[in-house]
């Protein structure tokens, strides 16, 4: 393990004691192909821009042939980012004790034994896009995220790729005029929830320290943050492998068809997943990555454009 500073910014080398694909572990953090906070180069390096307790930071992760991961970092938050490299790549997650209870899950676990949950150690950067995804299509949410980052987020520090932007800070979010929310396609309910989070953003970061259900409960104290949003944040901010996204439009049906051969609701899904406590979200991740596709019986849900309303 090495760390230091070069003309290429602060740098740290870390060789995980397990096989790791940085792009794969970090993929849940990417909000669509056009995410302004993310840039990848031919699958070999991942650039990310984000906020930290010390200020903004740009990071670049790559992996050498011997498995060593190299992170370069720039900006006031560089040191903080380098310090969290192992957790970011799932070092705090332990999939070894996972036991599969269904053939499909067992097969996915066998083929992908190294599935790990990343931990950004930062709530704010994953909370805003999670709120934007409430009760809308991914196309709508990703469009809104792009608009907010490009219009109100600052350019990423360091020699970042063109177009790489920081997520808007809580202060920048609070300063967004009403008409700009409309222009970004964000309805009043999601806007109120994001603004409520921005007011207490510094307190919400304590959720990473609490972890688990206590961390999710802290997030749910904010009006507009429910079980689904708290789980989506927990999976990414502190790598919670038991945070099930209850209330998701797709997951219960996917889990039901994959494991039971029929659609189910949230309550039935939690019952099916009960043998996997405390790694229920990992079981869901295996189902999602297994390649299974549920039957389609109707047209897809059409995106709405709030900018035209």
TrEMBL record:
InterPro entries documented for this protein: Alkylbase_DNA_Glycosylase/TA, DNA_glycosylase
Keyword Nucleotidyltransferase applies: no
Highest taxon of the lineage: Bacteria
Positions of region (Disordered): 1-57
SUPFAM superfamilies to which the protein is assigned, alphabetical: DNA-glycosylase
Keywords: DNA damage, DNA repair
Keyword DNA repair found: yes
Name of the molecule in the record: DNA-3-methyladenine glycosylase 2 family protein
Organism, scientific name: Pseudonocardia charpentierae
Organism lineage string: Bacteria, Bacillati, Actinomycetota, Actinomycetes, Pseudonocardiales
């Amino acid at each position: 393990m090495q760390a230091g500073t070069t003309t290429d910014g602060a740098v740290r080398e870390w060789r995980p004691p397990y096989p790791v694909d940085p792009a794969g572990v970090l993929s849940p953090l990417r909000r669509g192909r056009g995410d302004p906070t993310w840039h990848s180069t031919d699958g070999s390096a991942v650039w990310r821009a984000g906020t930290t307790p010390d200020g903004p930071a740009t990071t670049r992760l790559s992996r050498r042939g011997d498995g060593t991961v190299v992170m370069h970092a720039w900006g006031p938050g560089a040191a903080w980012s380098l310090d969290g490299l192992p957790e970011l790549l799932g070092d705090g997650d332990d999939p070894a004790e996972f036991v599969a209870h269904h053939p499909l899950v067992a097969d996915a676990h066998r083929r992908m034994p190294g599935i790990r949950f990343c931990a950004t150690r930062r709530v704010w950067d994953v909370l805003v896009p999670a709120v934007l995804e409430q009760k809308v299509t991914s196309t709508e949410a990703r469009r809104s995220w792009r608009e907010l980052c490009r219009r109100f987020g600052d350019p990423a520090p360091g020699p970042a790729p063109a177009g790489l932007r920081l997520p808007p800070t809580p202060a920048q979010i609070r300063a967004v005029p009403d008409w700009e929310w409309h222009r970004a396609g964000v309805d009043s309910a999601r806007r109120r929830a994001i603004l409520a989070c921005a007011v207490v953003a510094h307190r919400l970061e304590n959720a990473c320290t609490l972890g688990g259900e206590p961390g999710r409960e802290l997030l749910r104290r904010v009006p507009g943050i429910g079980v689904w949003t708290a789980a989506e944040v927990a999976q990414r901010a502190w790598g919670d492998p038991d945070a099930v996204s209850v209330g998701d439009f797709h997951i219960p049906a996917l889990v039901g068809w994959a494991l039971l051969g029929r659609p189910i609701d949230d309550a039935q899904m939690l019952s099916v997943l009960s043998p996997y406590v405390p790694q229920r979200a990992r079981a869901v991740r295996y189902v999602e990555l297994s390649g299974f596709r549920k039957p389609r019986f109707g047209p897809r849900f059409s995106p709405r454009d709030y900018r035209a309303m």
